[in-house]
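REQUEST FORM: STRUCTURE PREDICTION
Request ID: SP-0412
Submitted by: Lab K.M.
Chain count: 1
Length (residues): 81
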Amino acid sequence: MRVKMYKLRGLILKNGKNTMIDLELEFEGKRAFAIWDSISLGDYELKARVEIDPRRLKKMHGDCCDFLYRGELVLPQPQNN
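STATUS: Completed
RESULT:
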């Protein structure tokens, strides 16, 4: 199954400061996922996805991104795992 990828811009808290971040975005039915990281293994691609609220997505018209996430993205921190 081929999934259409979009560009997402969102806000994260990094080192105590708000920072804009660009990620890939994909949809699965009515659900939306920010792709935090991905790795290819031969014919397979493993993805670390974070589910986000699709109601907070705003469609953008420009080169920087396809969608803006109007909320704070909470991404996993490797040191907390």
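NOTES: The mean pLDDT is 87.
Reviewed by: T.R.
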